[in-house]
Design a protein that fits this description.
The protein has a single domain, classed as Lipoprotein localisation LolA/LolB/LppX (outer membrane lipoprotein receptor (LolB), chain A, Clam). Residues 4-18 have low confidence and may be disordered. It is of the alpha+beta class and 196 residues long. The protein has an eleven-stranded antiparallel β-sheet. The N and C termini lie far apart (69 Å). The protein is 28% helix and 44% strand. The chain has helices spanning 2-35, 106-120, 123-127, and strands at 40-50, 58-67, 71-76, 81-84, 88-93, 96-101, 130-136, 140-147, 156-164, 170-177, 182-192.
């Protein structure tokens, strides 16, 4: 009886592993197929931040731009911005402007890598240093990334990315810190391969 139970349990885990793998393969196929030929993206953006020390959730509106190979601009309506590339980032907050190597800020480096890989259709780049969990509905793919032990930015507990299944662009990116604080970006009115 124990052997039958053990074999049934083993078969269940093997079946689950194969199912998870085929789901990831399906996601990768859709992501690559629908991102092929995309050189730039422009979208309206809403940043939502919840920080335990602040009483209210802070929301900022702006514009998101991505262009190959991996230049990212988050430009807010109040004049603040974040510029990211593989090597550096520049951030304006109020009157202060900060310019640094991305290696100086592991969390921003990861965000840049995840966003760039998502726009390029590169699943390996999206999940590098993370364990991914994928689920899908008729309208969206949901990818949850949890840092592998000993890897990733120390503060990140998980990253959740929602992909629109029509074009495999990002609808929402949410980074949750170990403290429970989070930063979320919602993207709407997306335009592809625009030059201005």
């Amino acid at each position: 009886m124990r052997i039958k139970l053990l074999l049934a349990t083993l078969a269940l885990f093997i079946g689950f592993g194969a199912s998870a793998q085929s789901l990831q393969e399906e996601f990768e196929r859709e992501l690559k197929a629908k991102n092929e030929g995309i050189t730039s993206i422009k979208a309206d953006m809403t940043q939502t931040r919840e920080v335990a020390v602040l009483a209210d959730v802070v929301t900022k509106e702006g514009e998101f731009r991505f262009s190959q190979p991996n230049d990212i601009l988050l430009s807010f309506d109040d004049g603040d911005y974040i510029k990211l590339s593989a090597e550096w980032f520049e951030m304006k907050s109020g009157a202060n402007i900060t310019k640094r190597s991305t290696s100086a800020n592991p969390m921003l480096k990861q965000v840049s890598a995840i966003l760039s890989a998502s726009m390029k259709g590169n699943m390996e780049g999206i999940s590098k240093g993370f364990t991914p969990t994928l689920t899908k509905s008729d309208k969206e793919w949901r990818v949850v990334l949890r840092p592998e032990r000993g890897k990733g930015a120390i503060k990140i507990a998980e990253v959740e990315i929602l992909f629109d299944r029509n074009d495999m662009s990002i609808n929402r990116l949410k980074m949750v810190e170990k403290s429970g604080d989070y930063t979320m970006y919602t993207f709407t009115n997306k335009q592809f391969n625009v030059t201005k």
